[in-house]
Write a structure and sequence with these properties.
- The chain is of the alpha/beta class.
- Helix content is about 30%, strand content about 30%.
Length: about 950
């Protein structure tokens, strides 16, 4: 037995003093009180028993990186399920998964594992960190083991230290190897190419190839989509080199890809992902402007004629990656809708401008600004103009009904934790927020029936409407399209607003029972009701053609998106187009302001009219360079600094139906070239005394800032920071700030890690000195696919197991029996308290009421009376009588007098004698019982008063 708090036993002294001072009147109950106090004393001291136990905790560490074989997630889930079903009732199972990050899938508990749900990233293998996390889940007072399910190819921090810590804690690490099949790996081992070259400079590219055996290898080198060189090469076992020569073109960024495969057995390579390697080379010089214009536009030719260096592309051909954007000085978007660029493209463009110093110019038109879907987009916040339509500019009131798909597909959870239904609800509230007090709004939720959520009414109770909409849930089934349109049309028909509009939201692959929707939409058109459709999916889904036809016949828009997070923007865009006439189609007089001098030294005192423009509003802090002279006094040219980049807005149409007289202006070429040159201003550089360099080694990019060794002072007061953009195709870019630290007296350095398919674009801005952006860099392929010596991963796992007394586990069912039998301290405090409390209550009950004593006497009294009837009264024993003293006095007086003769009494009959013997006279037995009870009551009262 062990006391966890032996100091508490000192309380025995005050307990004994308390027992002596507050003695129990009846000694029979003293042992009970002593027992209670002893139990409490042992509980305070923390009495524990040391018992043998084999129950413990098993932590499964599952590798979910890209290097794992196909189907490994399912195999790992099956193994953990086997372990959870075979563990004892006192055992605990914890699950950890790792890749780039480490996550606890299941904390230590006795229960079944329900599968991997955490996003750990598959571009890395943080095995060492996973071992540390697993060891931290095992309590120190009970045994535990760690089971690693991995190929052993760790790419994160060194796992030697983590293994040593587990060994010091006495935690064995077992392993179950899971490796790809195959005997040899043909791979591109390394690419040697310059980081950057000058324009038109020739350079060499060296590719190192590793082959498991002598064989014929086919290769192909591509620049973008163009094949530069291809052929076949006989390679020996081991490493071989292939040389390529190329010449740089214009300034920008050049992207290359090398592909190889075995000619004899192309499908036998166990890791085919490292048969492709990509690399980037920056070309120094003046970068061109990227011009995105609609077909037939004369603006690109006008800019080229003015000496502007540019490349024209259509949005469908541009991938909006960081490596592509880094090849340009700026981007000009001419009357292109936001949907053609896409959400990822808008986010990447915004980050490239603000963090890397790019430029942006947007021109007007019916496919631009609010009309083109830029309102509430990812690009809106960096524009110097806002696109809301203010209430005083509204021409007509609006009645709008939203019919929401609430089918079973809407219950699917999307990245971020919310469901499709949740985001559709939020999108509907965006529609509600854009309406004014003169408008009307209604909402339906549709599955196999149309359910009225908000009846068509004014917006006096806007907050209540929003709460009802946000509470809509998916209830299963599919959406009945005709039912939705019919109910929405019936709801909006009585509206008195000048514009009546229906928004139908539906799954592009789950729209059912359209029935005779053509006649219904024809009736709606005659009643002045328009219908737009927003489809969740793509234009190639099974029901996309139906949704397009509904929008066409309904006179509205049809927009598709696979990203549910885009729904609020699309709902807002459709409402924007219906409720607000944001494009002014009337010819308007304009004039330049003093702010034009901040853009170009050229001044235009008189400017011709524009044929139309997008009605926008100048943001606070923006530079107003030209303004309309109509009732709106709206900005025509506005600019500002967005981060370290530049953004300019021209709200008129540059070339098209509404260009107006400015298109035929003799100075229009110089005017538009001045705007383009301002956003395409070359980076300032850091001057001759500072040089920023980078070098890619392994999966680390080492950036160094070199200072002049003969400088007389440090050119900055605080250490500068690198701004790093991490981009990957199909993923929004991430921004990271990394401080530079002193490496030597003249060099500041930073180390930037790369992962997988990421592209890094690094910039440095030193206030008061300048700003520069380095060429983009990338890894050839994910480090998870890097070529390694055969059996390296297995040897890593074996070393880890030997260091911690673990083994390779083939039979997982016996793993629980391998937990060591170790003594376990079992605390008795709860049991001691559980026993002491009722005994203490029993003692208090007796002391306060005497109920137990009275109950015992009540049971024993009938037996005593029965025995008294059969025992003759002893002449020597008489009951106490309060009148005994008076009788003795009377007897003494009588004895002092001479005896007097008494008359003889008659002899009683037998019946009378029997009755006399059966009934005791008053003052003997009955009087004694009454007197005893009164005496006991007086004694108890006296004791209470004394206490």
């Amino acid at each position: 037995m062990i006391f966890s708090w032996p100091v508490g036993l000192v309380l025995i002294v005050p307990i004994l003093l308390a027992c002596w001072w507050a003695r129990i009147p009846r000694r029979a109950w003293t042992p009970l009180r002593i027992t209670v106090l002893l139990l409490l004393l042992l509980a305070i001291g923390g009495l524990s028993l040391r018992l043998p136990s084999r129950s413990g905790c098993l932590v499964v560490v599952a590798d979910r990186s890209l290097s794992m074989p196909a189907g490994s997630d399912a195999q790992q889930a099956e193994m953990t399920d086997l372990l959870s079903r075979s563990m004892g009732k006192d055992n605990q199972l914890a699950i950890i998964s790792f890749g780039e990050r480490v996550s606890v899938e299941q904390p230590p508990q006795h229960g079944q594992f329900h599968g991997f749900v955490q996003d750990v990233g598959r571009e890395g293998s943080q095995l060492g960190e996973a071992i540390d996390r697993a060891a931290s889940l095992i309590s120190k007072d009970r045994p535990g083991r760690i089971l690693v399910l991995s190929d052993g190819q760790a790419t994160g921090t060194d796992m030697t230290a983590a293994t040593a810590r587990a060994a010091a804690a006495g935690i064995p690490i077992d392993f179950r190897p899971m490796q790809r099949t195959g005997s040899g790996d043909l791979a591109v081992e390394r690419i040697d190419a310059p980081d950057s070259v000058a324009a038109a400079e020739a350079f060499l590219i060296s590719a190192w190839i590793s082959s498991p055996a002598p064989q014929e290898v086919a290769y192909e080198l591509l620049h973008g989509d163009t094949v530069l060189k291809s052929g076949q090469l006989a390679v020996p076992t081991g490493r071989s080199r292939i040389m390529f020569r190329d010449r740089a073109g214009d300034a920008g960024s050049r992207s290359y890809q090398l592909k190889i495969h075995s000619v004899s057995s192309p499908d036998d390579d166990p890791v085919q992902e490292n048969n492709r390697a990509r690399f980037l080379i920056g070309v120094r010089g003046s970068k061109p402007l990227l011009c995105l214009s609609p077909p037939g536009s004369a603006l690109p030719a006008l800019l080229s004629k003015g000496g502007m260096k540019l490349q024209q592309q259509i949005p469908a051909q541009f991938h909006w990656s960081l490596e592509e954007l880094s090849g340009y000085s700026s981007v000009l978007i001419e009357d292109i809708p936001a949907n053609d660029i896409g959400t990822i493209g808008l986010q990447t463009l915004s980050a490239w401008i603000t963090e890397s110093g790019g430029g942006l110019c947007i021109t007007g038109g019916k496919n631009s600004y609010g009309s083109g879907g830029y309102f509430k987009s990812q690009l809106e916040s960096i524009l110097p103009v806002s696109m809301e339509m203010r209430k005083e500019h509204r021409k007509l009131s609006l009645a709008i009904v939203v019919a929401l798909d609430r089918s079973g597909s809407m219950a699917v959870t999307v990245p971020g934790g919310r469901t499709k239904m949740d985001l559709a609800n939020v999108a509907t509230t965006e529609v509600l927020n854009q309406l004014s007090g003169v408008d009307q709004f209604g909402c339906l939720a549709v599955d196999s029936m149309a359910h009225e959520i908000v009846p068509l009414s004014d917006l006096s109770s806007r907050d209540d409407m929003a709460r009802e909409i946000l509470a809509i849930d998916s209830l299963g089934g599919g959406i009945f399209v005709y039912e939705a349109l019919e109910k929405a049309a019936a709801m909006i028909a009585p509206a008195t607003a000048g514009t009546k509009h229906i928004i139908l939201f539906s799954d592009a692959a789950d729209s059912e029972k359209p029935e005779n929707y053509q006649d219904l939409l024809e009736t709606c058109t005659k009643a002045g009701i328009t219908v737009s459709v927003i489809g969740l999916g793509t234009e190639h889904d099974s029901d996309a053609a139906l949704l397009k036809d509904i929008a066409l016949r309904g006179g509205g828009q049809c927009m598709f998106t696979e990203d549910a997070h885009e729904l609020p923007r699309l709902f807002a865009q459709d409402t924007f187009l219906i409720s607000r006439s944001t494009f002014i189609e009337d010819p308007t007089t304009v004039r330049s302001t003093a702010g034009m001098k901040l853009i170009t030294p050229q001044t235009w005192s008189e400017m011709p009219q524009v044929g139309g423009y997008n009605l926008c509003y100048l943001r606070p802090g923006a530079n107003l360079a030209a303004i309309t002279e109509d009732e709106y006094q709206a900005p025509l040219v506005a600019s500002w600094q967005a981060g370290i980049g530049r953004v300019l807005c021209y709200t008129g149409q540059a070339d098209g139906e509404f260009t107006g007289p400015i298109g035929k202006w003799s100075e229009s070429g110089e005017f538009f070239n001045s705007l383009a040159r301002w956003i395409a201003a070359q980076e300032q550089g850091l001057g001759p005394d500072l040089l920023l360099t980078q070098q890619l080694r392994g999966n680390r990019n080492f950036v160094e800032l070199h200072l002049d060794s003969e400088r007389t002072s440090t050119p900055f007061a605080a250490l500068p920071q690198l701004t790093v953009l991490r981009g990957q195709e199909g993923v929004p870019p991430e921004t990271e700030r990394i401080p530079l630290t002193w490496k030597t007296a003249d060099i500041l350095a930073a180390e930037v890690p790369l992962a997988g398919e990421q592209t890094l674009l690094t910039s440095l801005e030193i206030p008061g000195i300048g700003q520069t952006t380095l060429p983009p860099v990338c890894l050839p392929y994910s480090p998870e696919y890097a070529i390694r010596p055969a059996g390296e991963g297995l040897r890593t796992l074996e070393r880890m197991a030997r260091a911690t007394n673990g083994i390779e586990r083939v039979n997982l069912g016996s793993l629980w029996e391998a937990l060591p039998s170790t003594p376990r301290m079992v605390s008795l405090t709860p049991w001691l308290l559980l026993l002491a409390v009722p005994l203490m209550l029993l003692e208090v009950l007796q002391r306060r009421t005497g109920w137990l004593t009275f109950s015992l006497k009540s049971r024993s009294r009938p037996q005593a009376e029965e025995s008294a009837r059969h025992v003759p009264a002893s002449p020597l024993k008489q009951s106490w009588n309060p009148f005994r003293k008076a009788k003795r006095t009377a007897a003494a007086q009588t004895s002092s007098q001479p005896p007097q003769p008494q008359p003889s009494a008659p002899v009683p009959a037998a019946e009378d004698r029997a009755s006399e013997s059966a009934t005791p006279p008053l003052g003997t037995g009955q009087e004694t019982h009454v007197e005893d009870a009164l005496s006991q009551a007086r004694n108890r009262a006296a004791r209470r008063i004394q206490r």
